[in-house]
Design a protein that fits this description.
- By secondary structure, this protein is of the alpha+beta class.
- Helix content is 54%, strand content 17%.
- It contains 11 helices and 11 strands.
- The strands form 3 sheets. A 5-stranded mixed beta sheet has the order 6-8-9-11-10. A 4-stranded antiparallel beta sheet has the order 1-4-3-2.
- Strand 8 and strand 9 form a beta hairpin.
- The longest helix is centred in the middle third of the chain and has 49 residues.
- The protein starts with a helix and ends with a helix.
Amino acid sequence: MKRLFISLYLLLSLGFLGIGWALDNLWQSNVDDKGALDAPLVALAQVLAALPVDERQPMLDSIELAPNFPLTLLDAEQVAFSSNQLVHSNKVIATPYDINHELHFVAVGEQVLMAGPIELDPRASLRNLYNIFFYFLLGFIVLLWVWPLSKDLKVLGKATKEFGQAKWDTRIRLTQRSQVLPLATTFNDMAAHISALIENQKHLSNAVSHEIRTPLARLKFALALLPQYCLPDSDEDKRQRFLDEMKLDIKEMENLLQELLTYASLETQRESLNFERCDLNSLALQTIKRLQTHHPIPITLVAPEETIYLIAEPSLVERALQNLITNAQRFAVNGVVVKISQTNDSIMLSVTDDGEGILAEDQGKIFEPFYRSASCKNGNKGHGLGLAIIKRIMERHHGDVQLISQPGFTQFNLIWSLAQTSNRTKS
């Protein structure tokens, strides 16, 4: 606060000083009426100059003078002035006499008329006091401006220090009148984002360690039993089944790591996505053909005759559709329906199955990473990252994912706003 106060105070002081000096010079050169105050003395000097030298003093003595304004007629040799102070008959020269008095001189022919000592204006002695009081008030005004700002900056500095000490819930609370409120709002947004990332990282680390522990334990147990399956008289079929189970455990860990890398990469690829104009009809058809060969549940595509074009990252859209179809195949009874539609303001890609549905208490959580419903069929397969990846993909495309589910009907909708799509096209 001290540095801010001093800098602002010096700035205002120098500003006022410069303005005051400029206005004072303008006043003295254009408006100052000091010449009008000297006019009577100049007029008297001109009257005396018109008289013979021997008549000037008698006339001066005949004038009734004020006691605080004495007049004396002097010879030119009795008065000494510097080279830049020449006495004229139409101009009064003032010189200091003491701290409270001054002398006035005006030419009277070859003589000089001296007025004084004249008492100075008594208010002039208060000028310095007024100046000190002015700058004191100026400093007080600056202090009123700096104090709340300094207080808010201290709050901001304290919050930043606490946040640097891993207190991730630190937030800044300022009044609406604060001059640094936008900065505090930006800090709060940054802190919320960083804390969310850190919490997400902790959650992912804990989940990964939990998910990978089971197949790793099976592998360790299998390695311990491996020697007895390698004996000369061991059953070859059992040995092969045993090795296949080990391969499945390795594949499960590979799939988990691949899903985790995909989920993490979507966080770092905020500005590096390569959006392009892709044919959504062809993309959906190719994905369905590829997935249909791996599962007996039929997949039906419902798409308009005209081609729907989408400005997006094709590989990510394909990944989102693949996750939805794969998930639907696990729960569908008779079939899966993929539908593409377009309205005036949005494009929607939906995947519907006729499975058991998702419990109401799980519908708000299934997009969280590693969350799996306890009622899932097929042995609760998967790692709980598929829907989380879909949500993050849609966030990167500034789109939305919606869920509608009840017993016998579950539908996931991927929705892209045409306004956001057009903005990406312009950029």
